[in-house]
Amino acid sequence: MPESLKVAISALPQVSKLYQTYIANFSALSDFYSVDYRSLASLSAHAERVRSAPYPRHKVARILREQNERWGASTAVLHNLEALAQSESLAIVTGQQVGVFGGPLFTIYKALTCLKLAQNLSAQLGVRVVPVFWLAADDDDIAEINRLVVTTRDNNLATFVCELDSAQRKPAFKVHLTESVETCHRALAESLADSEFKQEILAALAQAYAPGQSLVDAFARWMAFLFRDFGLVLLNPTDPALRRLGAPVFQREIDGRSPSTEAALQASARLAQSGFSVQVPQRSGRSNLFYVDEYRHGLEWRDGGFVTTDGTLRSSPAELLRRLQDEPQCFSTNVITRPILQDTLLPTVAYIGGPAEIAYFAQLRGVYERFGVAMPAVYPRKSLTLLEKKISHVLEKYALQLGDFWGNPDELLAQIARREAPEGLFDPVAAARDELGNRLSVLKERAIQLDPTLAAFIDKEHGKILHQLEALEKKLLQATKRQNETLQQQLLKAAHALYPMQHLQERELSIVPFLCKYGKPLLMQLYEAMEVEDFQHQVIAL
Fold first, then answer.
1. Distance from C-alpha of 515 to C-alpha of 247, rounded to nearest angstrom
2. Lowest-pLDDT range, 88-102, 311-325, 438-452?
């Protein structure tokens, strides 16, 4: 296999029509987005709009300095925060849920895409561009973020779920790790093969994800450890000081009786008319804000006031605005208003998003306009598959490509087992099938001259015999598989590595086993190898 292989996004499994179109034919979707992410001229024009707009730069930079120092910020991060406070600077932003042990690989790829695009645009635009990672601390989908999938020392897949002091609708920033996380650390250590870097990586992971630590702080400390040399700025939007700076966004949503919903509904209708699925369903009257006490409560406009969807709170707009003034930390955004808050606080030239994010940004152009905020370019995060040498050898041995694994692994095994079987093993069965068909055709032709009703009987018996031949063929195939245990093990190993749990590698596997094997230099290797201005899926050989 070559060191770097490209695969068209349209060839990947489980890719939406909208995302395929966004990559292959942006002009077909340009009405839904403000900036052509592929055009330097378009990015440059948007950069000028952003630089001329007012932002609370110094206040945001001061708050982020306090946050990042608490998580172990490097000198590179602090230098970037100094730059962010300056009037000429820009930001490239990405973000993700604060998953246990760092979440899946694509979280890392988002950060690396953000870093590399910031470097590229800094050179191309001649202005400092700061990479910022937005911690999705408001998210309350604990079941989604509370799992870790790794390939073990014996090439199997293992899923770890760490117990949290969580409950339904409790946002991540209110969730803490319990003592049981120690069990998760031990099980992870036992599942991974010993290596040169294992002790360092697992020690840093244990230090970040320690009992009693908040899930947000744990994730932030881990990311700070991984990217300390890259200067990645981390941002926790649930900080009360940032909430107060973002209060005008919440106020506009309350004062206008959820103008974001109306704008998103209009975009959703146009998307549907254009033949695209809508990523975030909306309904009239539903606000794109949450009220937060111990839990997160949806808000909707009903009978002249705001009501939480669970009925626990009813408030007039004036009362809700007073709460916002006194306790802005009691309000949070959802997927529709989060980007508005982001781009009110930060001079964002581009947001790095995955397929789902790019899909919901298609609903937001009108929302940005309602709030008077410049919509950034929405830049595709780099999509990668990591190909280790032991897996590359399997592909070479059996003449396979990455795409061969994007299906049923049992069918692939049967295909390769048939190909690897002793020469001529299945030929007699195929010959018998052909010969039977020919003989019975002649018999049927003669029989119906004697009695036309015999045709159906002959066809029925033909089917029975074919079924028996098929059963015999399956028995031969099973015997071939049993005789070739190495084939089964190697294909299963490759399937676990390349298409775990029938999903792209980047969506399931953790970076932790790779870091234990290759060390932190792996991150720089990926950074240098990834081509962020090429929007195909990239296979990187390790």
1. 40
2. 438-452
SS3 for 399?
Answer: coil
Residues 6+ apart with CB under 8 A from 31: 270, 365
CA separation, residue 168 to residues 98, 289, 297 (Å)? 16, 18, 11
Measured between alpha carbons, how far is 465 from 197 in angstroms, rounded to an integer? 60
Predicted confidence (pLDDT) per residue in 7-30, tens digit: 999 999 989 999 999 999 999 999
State CA 71 to chain mean position distance.
24
Give the domain ranges of the chain: 4-245+337-387+514-541, 247-256+282-333, 408-498
Distance CA 174, CA 164 (A): 11
Beta bridge partners of 160: 148
Mapped onto helix, strand or coil, the DSSP state of residue 6 is strand
Alpha-carbon gap, residue 259 to 368, rounded angstroms: 10
Query: Distance between CA 37 and CA 451 in Å, rounded?
Result: 73
Tell me the C-alpha to C-alpha distance, in Å, between residue 479 and each of 297, 332, 414, 432, 472.
58, 60, 11, 20, 11
Tokens of 85: 């406070």
CB 169 within 8 A of CB 297: yes
- Angle in degrees, CA 477, 504, 138, rounded to 5: 145
**Please, are residues 271 and 363 in contact by the beta-carbon 8 Å criterion?**
yes
Q: Which residue has the tokens 């895409």?
A: 113
